[in-house]
Structures are given as C-alpha cells and as structure tokens.
Design a protein that fits this description.
Keywords: DNA recombination. By secondary structure, the protein is mainly α. It contains two helices and no strands. It is 84% helix and 0% strand.
Length: 45
C-alpha cells in the first residue's frame, strides 16, 4: 500500500505525519527483504 492510501485512510493531510509514525515499519520490512534477497542470491551460486 502506498503512502497516499495510508494517509487517506488515517485522515492525515501531511505525509510527514504518516512517515513519522509508520516509517519504522517500512525500514524493518526493507531490511527483511534485503536479507531474503541476499539468501536467494547465495543459493543461486
């Protein structure tokens, strides 16, 4: 789900508000995705 959809659902008018509250979740998900991708690449060698 994009930031715009999240903002709309929460009634936020400033993306800064949404990012300050929820960005930490996205960072953790990105980290997990990066680790999984790294494991996949190792398995292909």
């Amino acid at each position: 789900m994009g930031i715009e959809e999240i903002m709309d659902r929460l009634g936020h008018t400033e993306d800064r508000t949404t990012r300050n509250i929820y960005l930490h979740v996205s960072k953790e998900l990105k980290k997990e995705a990066s680790q999984k991708f790294g494991q996949l690449m190792k398995s292909l060698q």
